[in-house]
Amino acid sequence: MKPILLLLLQIFLLLPSLSSSIRTNYTSIFSFGDSYTDTGNLVILYGGLTATPGVLIAKPPYGMTFFGQPSGRASDGRLAIDFMAEALGLPLLPPSLASNQSFRQGVNFAVGGATALDRAFFVDKGFKAVSPFNISLSVQLGWFDALKPSLRSSPQACKEYFAEALFVVGELGWNDYTVILLAGRSVDEAGSHVPEIVGNICAATERLIEEGAKTVVVSGIPPLGCAAGNLALMANQTGGVCLKDLNLLSREHNAQLRRGSGAAQTPACRRRADRLRRPARAHHRLRRGAVYNFNLTALCGMAGVSACADPSAYVNWDGIHLTEAAYRRIADGWLRGPYAHPPILTSM
């Protein structure tokens, strides 16, 4: 049985002052988000690919399909943001923490494990499953602010530069809810924080628009209840049914994000990613008895865990993240439709 593609909801935001025409000749891309978008920042925080023995994405088989080696991406190859850059004729986005890199044509501030809420929120509530790094969305915006003087000589020049750029606020919220749920709290409690989480994402989007951004792409979250890792960790043993309450949480997050972004009347944004009936399996070969081919004692990158020969036949790469083939499909839906409205490559 072929796996079902987990499509990320995509909202396309435009300033009201823009005409109906959408520019396609972007000069740069600025990206924010978590591991669905991170092109290397997490690995750099841990010391780099050659100095991160405890970071699994720094080990094979990560990167096997396109790069031939780990690249700091949580996949076998390229991410949706990579395909977007290629389609727009721009270089793959360097991570913002990389040294000796030019950021003139774009930069990626996303970090694996990032949350929409600030780290202090989780620390104050005593949650243990928090990244040791301060990498929330507000921190990424701080990195963006710090970088601006190196991009253009004045605030006005920056605004003009950003008007020709594509801004992407990638998937955020997954880690916020996961931290709460893995702390043993209920789905209802996790859901009570949807307004705060969505509010931070919308506030960040508004701030980017104030900085001069004319085109901002904002991503919703995929169905939490159909991820192989969540199904295994949250004791679902039914062998084929997604966790409805978690999918409803994703649905509510995306609904509030649409309302908060002012895109509630956008037809393409009404598409429900949580209409899945079957979960996807991870594509690694694990020992017999691993639920959904996922096991915390045999994760991708650990010794003795091998990857299937053809990742392109699968949606799920490691239980949470997707394969390059899935990201290609997602990017195509953003670029050409129907998962962004209007599509990024709409003719001018």
UniProtKB/TrEMBL annotation:
InterPro entries xrefs: GDSL (IPR001087), SGNH_hydro_sf (IPR036514)
Pfam family for this entry, one: Lipase_GDSL
Signal peptide coordinates: 1-21
Key words, A-Z: Glycoprotein, Signal
Gene3D superfamilies in the cross-refs: SGNH hydrolase
Membership in a protein family: Belongs to the 'GDSL' lipolytic enzyme family.
Stated name of the protein: GDSL esterase/lipase
